[in-house]
Amino acid sequence: MAKTSLCDAADQNLQTSLASFFRSMLGQDEISAIMAPMRLPAGDMVMQTLVTNPEQVDQIDPFAPAFPMNAARLVSRLTKRPAGGKVVVVLRPCEIRAHIELVKLKQGSMEDIVIAGIDCAGSFKNTDYKKFAEKDPETSTARFLKGVLSGETRFDGEVDLSAACRACTHMVPNGADLAIGIFGMDIDRQFLVSAETEKGEALFDKLGLKEQDAPGKREETIESLVAVREKFKNEMFEDTRSKTDTPEKLAAYLSGCINCYNCRVACPVCYCRECVFVTDVFDHDPYQYLRWARRKGKIRMPTDTVFYHITRMAHMSLACVGCGQCSNACPNDIPLVELFTATASQTQAAFEYEPGRSLEEEPPLAVFKEDEFAEVVEVKH
Amino acid sequence: MEDFEPTIIAFVCNWCTYTAADLAGTSRQSYPTNVRLIRVMCTGMVDPKYIIKAFLEGADAVLVSGCHPGDCHYINGNYKARRRMKLLKAILPQYGFDEKRLKLTWIGASDGIQFARTIRDMVSEIKELGPNEAKHAAVV
């Protein structure tokens, strides 16, 4: 059973109490830095920030509904080789899961980090976050949490939680060393800290946290939130499938794509240094375009769009954690996370694989067994 | 669909199925000309994107065929091919590419007769299924 503690929120202010929690972490000798989402000076943007000075933790705001990038990419940068110090990384559940995938793909490590995972209430798309936060940057996170914890998904009558978040059922930070909980808590008064691993427990003890039980209604709250999101997810999948179930419909769905590949750049688990789609293989000669157009009567320009997206499904859907950054990065608002997660749910089911579930489970395409999947082989006579 | 002649792209491994195709020829086994053989060194090198590209360019079916389990010239390439096939069979049907259009078989070097039969069967099955819808759609 994990050790848990309830941290009091001073002055009914979650952010100040989180700041003092993080300050006490930086006071530990073995912790060199904290990387956490931090409110930037302009006020209405939140970005992961690497902090070493305990006096500069005040603007850390992990629960802000801003999700400009999946921080797994940053954690991989911090851990691909020894950094010479231990860093506490404050991550959302989908960032933890993406990092676990990256570690399995040899793109990072768990060695020099302590993962402080948060209960994730969700986030807005980048443009929506700006709209939401600029009204009153200081109170925006509190306003958001109050609404979302009482079941709201639409704010100010105009901005919705992102589709990825509304369909997300991984709201508690599995895989974290320390988990920071808000579900089922009276967040004006306290938040929950629980040690989930040995590493987390060591830090828990060092911080001198008092062992206290989590409130009983926590499990219940999480279950009911998950049930709502599960329902949304299933409807979203069904809707997406009905829009993409023939090659022509799929092409129509992706018709706004300009081959900018932002979705791939934003994808935390798409890790190739050089994607095949930007290599010479796709640097077609001018005469080839004309030849294709002649053969078919017409071709869409740019070419290779559907090809690119289906190939990404084949290359990366098994590792897709559903964080929604692909949708966030699309300049033409193609509902990519809907498509990606709907497809990924099938591929992941085919291999009974869940990305980010465990470091021990090998990525399905990295291993094989001699005796398996007989159903995909035609045996005759 | 009386006069529909399907186009089948077949990725065959150098050591087993390609050799079987060769044997079919030298043994005067006949099989339909609908199939375009692409010789690869091993089915383990058939990237999913080759298959996706074939379908998007209008192939009516794709066959991947290599050595029987345990016989792979490179020890285990065919096992990897089987996993990729499992993956593609989970992806392509979602976008309306009938699963029957994608086949994996093991045909050993001495199975010339079986190679010819496999192609004959596949052509008649695909004829019944009709053309791949992506052939005429502008999906590239």
Short description:
Chain A has 381 residues and is an alpha/beta fold.
Whole-number average pLDDT of chain B? 94
Low-confidence stretches of chain B: none
Structural class of chain B: alpha/beta
Q: Helix proportion of residues of chain B, in percent?
A: 25-40%
Strand order across the biggest sheet of chain A?
A: 1-9-8-5-4-2-3
Rg of chain A: 22 Å
H and E order of chain B:
EHEHEHEH
Number of helices of chain A: 14
Strand content of chain B: 15-25%
Tell me the major beta sheet of chain B: 4 strands, parallel
Fraction of residues in helix of chain A: 25-40%
Number of domains of chain A: 2
The CATH topology of chain B is given as Rossmann fold
Q: Biggest chain pair contact, residues each?
A: A-B, 47 and 42 residues
Low-pLDDT residue spans of chain A: none
Task: Describe the SSE topology.
The complex is a heterodimer of chains A (381) and B (140).
Chain A: E1 3-8, H1 14-26, E2 31-39, E3 46-51, H2 72-79, E4 86-91, H3 93-104, E5 113-118, H4 126-133, H5 137-149, E6 154-155, E7 159-160, H6 163-166, E8 178-181, E9 190-195, H7 198-206, H8 217-244, H9 247-253, H10 262-266, H11 286-296, H12 305-316, H13 325-329, H14 336-350, E10 377-378
Parallel strand pairs in A: 2-4, 4-5, 5-8
Antiparallel strand pairs in A: 1-9, 2-3, 6-7, 8-9
Helix pairs in contact in A: 2-3, 8-14
Chain B: E1 8-13, H1 17-26, E2 35-40, H2 48-56, E3 61-66, H3 77-91, E4 102-106, H4 112-129
Parallel strand pairs in B: 1-2, 1-3, 3-4
Helix pairs in contact in B: 1-4
3D architecture notes:
The complex is a heterodimer of chains A (381) and B (140). By secondary structure, chain A is of the alpha/beta class. Chain A has two domains: 3-230, no CATH class; 244-376, no CATH class. Chain A has 14 helices and ten strands. Chain A has helices at 14-26, 72-79, 93-104, 126-133, 137-149, 163-166, 198-206, 217-244, 247-253, 262-266, 286-296, 305-316, 325-329, 336-350, and strands at 3-8, 31-39, 46-51, 86-91, 113-118, 154-155, 159-160, 178-181, 190-195, 377-378. In chain A, strand 8 (178-181) and strand 9 form a beta hairpin. The longest helix of chain A has 28 residues, at 217-244. Chain A is globular, with a radius of gyration of 22 Å. The termini of chain A are far apart. The relative contact order of chain A is 0.13. Chain B has 140 residues and is an alpha/beta fold. Chain B has a single domain (8-135), classed as 3-Layer(aba) Sandwich (Rossmann fold), CATH 3.40.50. Chain B is built from four helices and four strands; from the N terminus they run E-H-E-H-E-H-E-H. Chain B has a four-stranded parallel sheet, sandwiched between helices. In chain B, helix 1 links the parallel strand 1 and strand 2. In chain B, helix 1 (17-26) crosses helix 4 (112-129). The longest helix of chain B has 18 residues, at 112-129. Chains A and B meet through helix 9, helix 12, helix 14 and strand 10 of A and helix 2, helix 3, strand 4 and helix 4 of B. Strand 10 of chain A pairs parallel with strand 4 (102-106) of chain B.
